[in-house]
Fold each of these.
Amino acid sequence: MGRLVEGSWVDEWHDTGASGGAFLRPPAAFRNWVTADGRAGPTGEGGFRAEAGRYHLYVSYACPWAHRTLIYRELKGLEPLIGVSVVHPDMLAEGWTFGRDFPGTTGDRLHGVAFLRDLYLRAAPRASGRVTVPVLWDRARDTIVSNESGEIIRMFNAAFDGITGNRQDFLPAPLRAGIDGVNARLYEGLNNGVYRAGFATTQAAYDAAVAEVFATLDWLEERLLGRRYLMGAEVTEADWRLLPTLLRFDPVYHLHFKCNRRRLIDYPSLWGYTRDLYQYPGVAATVHLDHIVRHYHYSHATINPHRIIPANPVLDFAAPHGRG
């Protein structure tokens, strides 16, 4: 796994000793925004104008945070404008690599480097911190725009509309405060909650995290009893932020992260809702279960030291969902 320390790579797992065994996710390091006219966004500096062919997206098909950006790239018609490079699903001593010996990996299509950290060092030679996906790269300025998935999808939602003509808005102004509130609960309790359970190194830290995971799933099940999507009749950002976690729940988080009180398929509304979103035009093509299952079980030696890939449940995400 590892991280950068003043520009040097250190192979080091997360340090939970100082936090009572709890996993703490560090904040993203690059927080600039692509905007329609190049003005500065809510964070970072300006100068990143929306242009066709200028930006490139680095992802792992396994990573739920990167998966969000792939969904938005598809739904907003950005494939012709923004290229993609896909890392290898195995994240071992060298971190994310551009090995090409697994189906679907691409290598680094821009620079031909071997490791994702090489891009971080190209942008900031003395960078420190975790080397994560997604990464949105600016070819014109030869640097990283952002590695914060929640902000990248907001850029994709609107910044390029004047080029593509795609005006579908997953963050409508009247719903924004509500979406932000739902996002905050989902992040703490589920999106990051499964990691807090899986990476915990004390019983108390695990117990607290896993209780919150299932409290959040129970809350979602009740919320979806009376509405098709999280905010009502129309799909929004909150749904797309949630979906990658749900798709990984039974194949990975239930077993690998010990979130095994119940399965996703034990929640009738949530299971139908997951299939509904999966069948939304364009979304299924972004789902790569082979990368997902391989990455988690092979990469996390502290959890699965023998790197045995389990026999997983057969899930039919394409089955009728009955939520129309």
Note: The domain at 173-280 is CATH 1.20.1050.10 (Glutathione S-transferase Yfyf (Class Pi); Chain A, domain 2).
Amino acid sequence: MHRRKWLDRREFLGNMGSGLGSIALACLLEEQAGAAPPASPLAPRAPMFPARAKRVIQIFCPGAVSQLDTWDYKPELIRLHDQPMPGAPPTTFQGTNGNLMKSPYGWSQKGQCGKWVSDMLPELANCVDDIAFVHSMTARSNTHGPGLLQMNTGYVFDGFPSVGAWVTYALGSESQDLPAFVVIPDMRGMPPNGPSNWMSGFLPAAFQGTAFNTDQPITNLRSPATSTDKREQDMRRYLAGLNSEYDAHNPGYSELAARVSSYELAARMQLSAPEVTDISKESPETLRMYGADSPNPLKAGYARNSILARRLLERGVRFVELYCGSRASGVDGLLNWDAHKTLKADYDRHGPILDQPTAALLKDLKQRGLLHDTLVLWTTEFGRMPTHQTGTAGRDHNPAGFTAWMAGAGVKGGVSYGATDDFGYKAATDVATIYDYHATVLHLLGLDHKKLSYYHDGLKRRLTDVFGEVIKPILA
């Protein structure tokens, strides 16, 4: 039989169309298969390359901590105090700005590295040799809500997975009895956006943060009063048999296994969660070191939460997010770091709450041998202006230049990366973005931020969107 060696135009276009369609379908199915949650979503998984960090604790101070009153020493701001800021008046968020305003706190050099630190934070100042400061951070928003979202999720809009969700999606958990990602809100309340700061977004729900602390532990974990241990065990064996039978008739169906894993974790937490939140067995020396015995209930509360954070890390929790500060409301005035009017009075209240417990956490992790493979992050949503707001002794919002820092696993201590201008207004040297910061966090965990993705709505979504470079000079 004679066979043609050519195709007419109609056949060629038809074959090409079906061929390209098949390729597209195969790619789509591959993407969807890659995006499916593992059968046991919290099972530990290997990183993409050798990791320096096994776990992360992120300390978040909502309200936009002033870099100019904490970490970013500016002699020119001191020298030109109460003079007009050179150049065009800066764009502001709330009202007009007056003259330059130096910090109401003194500064001194600390550690072998000689780092200048505000006298507001005397305990943390003694930890600078373990810390890498990024002084040239920039953000995309000057509003608290979107600012917190970007620092926590990479985006200024709601609905995207948080850093903790991405990390636990990629690496799972080393704990069998606790969530992979735990959030410890401030005892004074939720930060702006609330749970949106630690949501899983379009990732499977198993990877969202679970919020609790020493004062408000997870509720509804106790068994009913009518239940007995034998009845509980019989019920679980029966359920396990039903699930096993269903699994045998539906091979490859991972959704049920993932849901069963979540319920089994909830059952195990009936024993593990009350134990981990009970810090009464900590030594008196440890409680004093953190400040848990402070007569200031806000400081004592944050100290207890800091101890809880360490206990969670010890028990295999992959990512802990610890808040210091909450909403700007309450009977005692501003409850977070949003110091628009009375910066000195506000920071006299907030500084001691942050300082001793956070310094104790760093020292405690180090002496227990955990700091070498634990990454500690200190973050806020943006910085503040070098000028005072007209008619006040406070500073306005400033996303053009602020400070964040890292310590611990794989981080070069006692270094400062980037710089703002002479007045601390704009990032001027080695400008860094939140995308760069996130890329560096993932890198230390053995994850390539350009390859860690999830197929959603026709796109390969990433924590860093299409941006971000690892900040290599701060790596050990």
Note: The radius of gyration is 25 Å.
